[in-house]
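User: Okay, second chain of the day. Same drill as before: sequence in, structure tokens out.
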Amino acid sequence: MKVIVCGAGQVGFNIARTLAAESIDVTVIDPLPDLVRRVSDTIDVQALVGNGAHPDVLERAGAADADMIIAVTFADEINMVACQVAHSLFNVPTKIARVRAQSYLQPIWADLFSRNHMPIDAIISPEIEVARAIARRFQVPGAIDSIPLAGGRVQVIGVRCNPDCPVINTPLRQLTGIFPDLNIVVVAIWRDGRAFVPTAEDQMFAGDEVFFVADAAQVPRAMTIFGHEETVARRMIIAGGGHIGLFLAQLIEKDHPAVGAKIIEFNRERAHVIAPMIARTPVIHGSVLDPEILAEANIVATETIVTVTNDDETNILSSLLAKRNGAKRAIALVNSTVYPPLVSTLGVDVVVSPRAITVSTILQHIRRGRIRAIHSIEGVGEVLEAEVLETSRLVGKSIRDAHIAEGILFGAIVRDNVVHIARADTVIRSADRIVLFTTAEAVKEVEKMFAVRLEFF
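Assistant: Same drill. Structure tokens below.
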């Protein structure tokens, strides 16, 4: 597979790094020599300086035999034109573009990106994806991550084990005996800077970040068992009125009428722009690092603060300041790869990585086989939902006898709209939808398991 990535910023860099790690032929294009040099020095890919929307640059990048172009520069128009040129001149099969301006994304203009006009197969808006990811997290109080799969019937939940967690220091095999009707599978544990797929003998320790697959109906009980009995936030402050903050406020107004939110925006002009765009969310002009502004926003009675400014340091410091002044929970947007391991120890409850969220969205269009959904958990691995075909080598075998590669763990099977938690003796059938976790090293094995074979046609 050959992929061209236009844009060597954080998103483009991490997409290229992820694909290169899987031995995919990647070429990165960017007009800034420093960014191209960084890519060349740190990733085993081809990299060249140029404008990805120019035909001669795409030709030098090998567009004539490329399978996919992913345009994620900072300019929407360059991304869209790059896809158009790749289609019209080089017949590149799959075209993905990052589009940030909400005007392009209005439903009334949806036909713009059809094959008859501007043929882009997938539009990615990081701001919208990040806002949705944040909204998912506060729907499950206490979770550091929440991923719905199989039409919402299955959820993958990430939790941090506190010292008072009832199930720490207990071998995982004993969980079923202690809670016989609890339908969950622990699929990954992050500990001391590394992630691993646990065995039945492994234990969870205080400070671990644990990811488990659960029947959605059992998530509240599972959270209680992990020691998280936080209530759903009803009062919220959003620090930052940019695209993410605005879209999050609009999501809350639309889908969570019981939640009262306020926005704090430092730029006066921006505050005036967004105020008419939200019906019941007050906009306060000021700095989220100003204790007086926090007091005006009634931080003492705030259950959750979400910091989504354009500056990592502001997001981290304002989260800590808000918690010190009375906020119960803090969710911080952090772009840097340096800060996340440190932030949770400082007191920030949830760190959201726009980079990881955007990469997850793009990977859904790259993974082969009958893979329906994919979510990347930064530094941990990937959670996938895949469909079992009649020709799959898994059909008719129990999970124990299917010889699943190391680094892959089945979490749940959805069969006839019923969720079955995966056990060693569970027999896999055709048309099953399997939710599983895989490390980066085992992704190729997952693709093979769910590949479409010739006999299928």
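The mean pLDDT is 89.

User: Thanks, on to the next one.
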